[in-house]
């Protein structure tokens, strides 16, 4: 039984690039348009949608599902990492408050603890739980997962059998679209970071 899972990162957010994590942030108009462009390409082939509960993912996902007459499931475990003291900060602001920490985290986040943040190992564990739940519920279907840079990076590393330390080794642009195929117990990556 083959399951196809498309992974879509949300589009650009108002206020520029910041470590928002669990902080709500509105999509820019262009950010929503780039997501809609991916949806138009996929519309008609998707059986169900699973989305992070954060509005930058869930609002477009729920609108598309309603339009297509398909189920949309909120999956709390694929929400973005809680960045604690980094929430809402730009990389420049993080560097000023926590000199050198961001570059070390980007090199290898394992074992690091951002103040008041979720540990990367705990984050990865809950994202994989969410991923496995989506796979179980969606067996034999074509599903769109709408999520975040961090959660999609974790899923992609898991699909590839790559170590968690590798999640910062590939880019994850806004509205990037990737596809994983599961056939029996095997899972492989068909597309990575396609842009419309």
Summarize this structure as a short list of keywords or feature phrases:
single chain, alpha/beta, Rossmann fold, 6-stranded mixed beta sheet, 6 helices, globular
Which helices and strands, and how do they pair?
Layout: E1 2-9, H1 29-42, E2 48-51, H2 55-68, E3 72-74, H3 91-97, H4 101-107, H5 120-137, E4 142-147, H6 149-160, E5 177-183, E6 186-194
Parallel strand pairs: 1-4, 2-3, 2-4
Antiparallel strand pairs: 1-5, 5-6
| Total count of helical runs of at least 4 residues | 6
Strand content: 15-25%
Please give the share of residues in helix. Answer: 25-40%
Structural class by sheet pairing and helices: alpha/beta
CATH architecture: 3-Layer(aba) Sandwich
Average per-residue pLDDT, rounded, comes to 94
At the fourth level of CATH, the homologous superfamily is Phosphoglycerate mutase-like
Which residues form runs of ≥5 with pLDDT under 50?
Answer: none
Return the CATH class: Alpha Beta
Q: Report how far apart the termini are.
A: 29 Å
How many beta-strand segments? 6
Question: Order of strands in the sheet with the most strands?
Answer: 3-2-4-1-5-6
Q: Helix and strand string, N-terminal first?
A: EHEHEHHHEHEE
Q: What is the global morphology?
A: globular
């Amino acid at each position: 039984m083959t399951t196809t899972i498309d992974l879509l990162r949300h589009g650009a957010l108002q206020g520029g690039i910041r470590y928002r994590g669990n902080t709500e942030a509105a999509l820019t108009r262009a950010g929503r348009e780039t997501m809609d462009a991916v949806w138009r390409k996929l519309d008609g082939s998707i059986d169900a949608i699973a989305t992070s509960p954060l509005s930058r993912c869930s609002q477009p996902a729920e609108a598309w599902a309603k339009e297509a007459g398909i189920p949309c499931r909120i999956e709390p475990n694929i929400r973005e990492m809680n960045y604690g003291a980094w929430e809402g900060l730009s990389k420049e602001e993080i560097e000023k408050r926590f000199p050198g920490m961001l570059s070390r985290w980007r090199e290898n986040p394992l074992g690091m603890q951002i103040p008041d943040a979720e540990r990367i190992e705990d984050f990865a564990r809950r994202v994989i739980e969410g991923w496995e739940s989506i796979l179980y519920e969606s067996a034999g279907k074509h599903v769109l997962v709408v999520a975040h840079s961090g959660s999609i990076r974790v899923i992609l590393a898991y699909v590839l059998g790559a170590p968690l330390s590798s999640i910062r080794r590939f880019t994850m642009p806004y509205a990037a679209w990737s596809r994983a195929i599961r056939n029996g117990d095997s899972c492989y990556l068909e597309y990575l970071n396609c842009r419309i």
